[in-house]
Design goal:
The complex is a heterodimer of chains A (470) and B (1047). By secondary structure, chain A is mainly α. Among the domains of chain A are: 29-131, Orthogonal Bundle (Cytochrome Bc1 Complex, Chain D, domain 2); 192-223. Chain A has 20 helices and 3 strands. Chain A has helices at residues 2-22, 29-40, 60-64, 69-77, 79-84, 88-97, 110-126, 144-182, 191-195, 198-222, 239-245, 250-253, 268-275, 286-296, 314-333, 340-357, 385-391, 397-400, 417-426, 441-449; strands at residues 298-299, 304-305, 371-372. Chain A has a two-stranded antiparallel ribbon. In chain A, helix 1 runs antiparallel to helix 8 (144-182), helix 2 packs antiparallel against helix 8 (144-182) and helix 13 packs across helix 14. Chain B is an alpha/beta fold and 1047 residues long. The termini of chain B are close together. Classes of the chains: A mainly alpha (470), B alpha/beta (1047). Chains A and B meet through helix 13, strand 3, helix 17 and helix 20 of A and strand 2 and helix 31 of B. Strand 3 (371-372) of chain A pairs antiparallel with strand 2 (73-74) of chain B.
Chain lengths: 470, 1047
Amino acid sequence: MICNALRTNILYTFLLLAFALTSSAQVSVDAGKTIFSNVCASCHAKDMKTAATGPALAGYADAWGEYPREELYSWIRNSQALIAAGHPRATQLWNDYKPTVMTNNLGLTDEDIESVLAYVDCKIVNGPECTVVGPPVPGPGETAIKKSNSWMYWLIFGLLAGLALFLSRVINNMGRIAAAKEGVPYTGKTLAQTLTSKSMITFGIFALVILGGYTTVTRAMNLGRQQAYQPEQPIEFSHETHAGLHKIDCQYCHDGARRSKHAVIPATNTCMNCHAAIKVGSEHGTAELTKIYASAGYDPSTNKYIENYDDMSQEDIKKIFTKWIGDTYMAEEGLAELDNEGKRVVEKQWKGLVSSLTNDQKKKIQGPIEWIRVHNLPDHVYFSHAQHVTVGKLECQQCHGPVEEMDIVEQHAPLSMGWCINCHKETEVQFKDNEYYQSYMKYHEELASGKKDKVTVEDIGGLECQKCHY
Amino acid sequence: MKANKQNIWIGGKDLNNDPQLEKDLQMEFPMDNSELAEKALEKDGNRRDFLKLMGFSLGAATMAAGCDIPVKRAMPYVTKPDEIVPGVATYYASAITQGGDFCPVIVKTREGRPIKIEGNPNSSMTGGGTSARAQASVLSLYDVNRYRKPHLMLDGKMTASSWADLDRVVKGAVAKAKVRVVTNSVLSPSDRMAMEQFAAGAGGKVITYDPVSSSAILEANEQVFGTRAIPAYRFDKADVIVSFNADFLGTWISPTEYTHQFAKGRKPEQRKMSRLVQVESHMSLTGSNADNRILVKPSEQGAAIAALANAIVGGINGPALNAKATKAITKVASQLRKAAGKSLVVSASNNVAEQILVNAINNTLGNYGNTLSFNAASMARQGNERDLEVLISEIKSGLVDTVIFNNCNPLYDYAKSTELAEALSGVSTIVGMSYAPNETSAACNVIAPVNHVLESWGDAEAKKGEVSIIQPTIAPLFDTRQVGESLAAWSGGSAATLGAYESLKNVYKAAYTPASGFSSFESYWDAIMHGGGMSTNSTTSSSNFSADMGSLARLVSKPASTDLEISFFEPVSIGNGQYTDNPWLMEMPDPVTRTSWGNYLAVPVGFDGVRKMIGMNDLEDGDLVKLTVGGKEMIVPVIQQFGQMPGTVALALGYGRENSGPCASGVGVNVNDCLTTENGLTQLYNTNVSVSNSIGKEDHFSCVQYHHAYGLKGTEKDTGERINADEAILGMAYGKAGYQGSLTERSVMYTTNLNDLDADIAKLKEKREFAQHLNDQTLYPYEEYKADRYEQGHHWGMHVDLNACTGCGACTVACMSENNVPVVGKKEVSRHHEMTWLRIDRYFYGDIENPNTVYQPLMCQHCDSAPCENVCPVNATNHSAEGLNQMTYNRCIGTRYCANNCPFKVRRFNWYDYTTADLFPANQVKLNGEDVPFGADNLTRMVLNPDVTVRARGVIEKCSFCVQRIQEGKLTAKSEGRRLNSSDISTACQSACPTGAITFGDQNDKGGELSKKLKSDLNYVALEEINVRSSITYTMKVNNRDESMDA
């Protein structure tokens, strides 16, 4: 009887131990997805099939198939090194994509890379259905590092829990053996007794405090961060149409980016440069474009700016723009007169226009369009677009993500200080062509002698407090 | 008593070895115990409250965590103006004028909002320098107290009205053709023309007077040379300058211009220094910069001028002068004669005979045409206060029905304001073209509010032929109208509909001649608008000197026989009340007395022979006394003033305002009604005066003289040895003997005389070598660190030339404006809580009874081995690779360890929420009982620099070397792909300085401006021996005092 119980117990214990030992690091599509969205997605398209800032990943198997797997690993970890080494595939890619440099990913293990590749394969085969069961997609604000490491904590937790259970079984068995030796009937603690024991309660409270503290701190750090923020704008302006389809340069509209700290949301008259001619949109027809005209005071029917527009009443404004919407509707439908559906369309579009251009503070239709700011930095952060765009020659997408694919713009990067710092640590300064940096003689010497292979932003003080806070 | 010339002190307490001072200086933030007790009563806190508060905080934090981030909106322009790029500053050349005060400037605007004043380097007058008043003018634009609408008297009450109604009322009054326009000096030629035409059309005349009168000079020049003007002075060309009570570096006529000139003549490196002799009783800013001061009582000024005239011109038998001054004047006369043609004598006297004597002296010395001339004569003072007396009698005899005040305040600043006020009660229409409520506007029944100069079109001719164009930098914030437009509207005709811009342009179009080198008027107009103005060679005809010298001696003012005399002076900061509404200027300490927020009676101090300083009537700093001047009794606080002549006291004008803005009303006492008149001209002194013994202590004694002092010396009690005051602690800890370094005299300040310069340079070198030797004993291989960290890129540094600095204070206000430095108010100042990042320390040295003065602008020294950085528990202050001592507000938790460990005492702590960065009103302080705390009002907040963080309560702040300007300059150079030039970056203090005393730059730029300055052998580093490796270099102060004059 005792022996039986003992045997099962020992068996159970070993089972537990075996389970704990086998659940070590391994390749998984799940992990791959996490790594992909944290590390790769800023440059590589999510569908794996189109080229973005970086090439489409779907082709990796063909392109790298003839080379040892390790070379692909080292390409992903440090592409510039491989290019410098003269690797044929690397050189080819560099010729296609330079001067865009792939960010180094020295922290990725072989397993990590395999996971990503597994995820890529999964995407190729299953398309968007390649969803994986696992921890929910991380919420806004969590930084890349935290996300990629969380599985490790679960693992350690599992190991320790297993160990604890194992030890408790050992103690239990010892008690049993001791009791058997002395011939006393062994009365093991019931589950309820174990759970309400002093040590368990102490442990529980301790765990709660730690967990609570951890949650508070991480939540507090995330206060004010809004990664993936995607508010609805007063005008359904599509970057996908403008920047993606029509390939309008970002800085055509955001003309502050090269010369100011603000990228600048364009003035309505910037829209008018094109939309004085393009008066009906491909997706929304007159519904959205009329809002621009109503803001600027442009009558699309007569192609003229309306005189004394600022002093006009809402009724007069309504007459002008409902006429335009109605006329366009009739022209499209080939009608001579507005039918009921047309009247409904006109009324709906007018209502949309009014609600977009007015709010509690702004009662008048005339005047600026109040866009919703997507990217917000705290007041104590000084950030200059000009520094990054003109001097650093960064692509907009590096921080803002593939805006040209976004129908509605969302905040791509976490915009946290850790995120800034990481980039400053890795990014190479445009050192050679800019005469300003001549004053860094030592670095120039070290570059020439090969002692240094690049000068990062960190090297010239890019991590110092007063680069951004003053 | 003659003392060792290395003996430097900041005030009597320092010389006395005052125990309280020593105690205070050991603490970074001395605590007033009564204050703490008061606080405890106020808050009545206990454990329960603490728990409640804690609960509330937790709840609030939870709520905050649960709330959504507020939606932020971004509003672009509909049609973006070409010249505006959001986030990039736009600059406009313009000029700041206020009465006769003038400064050519460049206005920095952001998103269409003026935020900072810079000097216009194109100006031949100022060379890009500014004054504290010009710097502060941008804050006046956002004065919450200013008139926002026209007002009319309705049923005995001033009521907001419309311009149409107002114009109807004024036109009706003007039609009666009994109009007088009262104004301060008008620098704008077009405004003056408009005013005169209007007055002529309305059967009246223009009456011009100045808050501080220079009528006698104008009249003397009219009598003697036939031209009523103030000559153009050239202080840079004079080798010997004698000034009779004229504070030409501080307040007299055109101080910024004169300061700029004066510094040019003081270059000890080139062994070239003018000698300035100041004859006065109260130490003015100019007196403090003088090499020799000759002490005469206010009533003896005439006698002193007559004595000098007698010695130079001869034949003047003036009244008797005190013996010491007589001897000194004789010496001065011989020096003047030696420097004939290269000397200059000026006087602020308001006695015509005395001014004619001054003219005679300059004439005999052959100075006309050399150091002063009527070509490009100054227009800064045009007033004649006798006309106001005429106005009073005209009103009384019913000749006047309408009085229009052009933005002036005679009911406050005119000596006979009471008589004028009485007379005005018989005038039916009184129009105030006022900017903000004041004593005069309170007596008006029509208020036609005027624009701020930054909202106006205009012109200014500060000197004949030197015209500045004033262009608006923002549309009028309120329903106001500039003077020219109002006058045009009231006189009717075509001008009424033209508008200010077109009217101005027409004036210049009419005067334009195609010969001026421009292809068209438009290109000429654009050029003068862009550059800020133009100058034409102007010659003013003046006849040869002719005066009846014999009769003059009788007409100079006679010395009084009374024991005590009081002189009144215009303070550098607030003028005679014209600038009292401006909190920046109210908080700016007087350069000499170092007091702020009120006028303090300067009393002389005597020396008892045993190292004790005794003020008159045993008065001490902060004592309240009953002051009786004429028949008027006042209670005023006292400040002991070195260099104040025994038997005289002095008090500042401009305070004690009524019916005025929140920060001006009821601060200090008004002494304008204590002024006397002689032949109708205002005299800034009174001989009928008595001062009581102490009758109490002032509640909030706001003098910063002993705040944040460093490196003081005192006397060891046992041995009588002079040691550093901050060594008391070291003495205890280590036992003085043998403690290495502690007995080293601190290198705070080095002074010398021009004659001893070479010897003292050698001594300075020795001292610096010794400091270097001490520093070499360090365990840390600093030179290695330096080579490693700073050999490439930038290494910022600064040079401050103490021989150029006059202590005018423009830099301190510029710093406040640039860096959003808060104003804290009188009570907070009294608790050592003033927030200035840049303070100007004032030291006396030499003769205790008649000392010389040196000013030391002191800001964060950006030590490369900074003591503050090591003690911060959260690393909120640390060092950059470019040598900046960085302060990160968001990391700071407010332990104040850094401030305690700063040897220069330059770190400031936000005890309250001065700039209202958070939501809790309890954290905000009021300056002077205003409704909304200064800085909380959205109008005032428009002045904030958007590139500098507004600091919250509980964090330390300090000079950042204007890091925002460094970043901007670097970005410009990087964007243009070129190396950084010296001209790319200038700090706010540097660009404000009228003498170029401050040079900021990159120490690694070997060809740069800074490197040139760093080569001078007069250079020293403050507290060099403590091995903090400061980045700021000062120069040894050199004076040109003639010791023989003191005998």
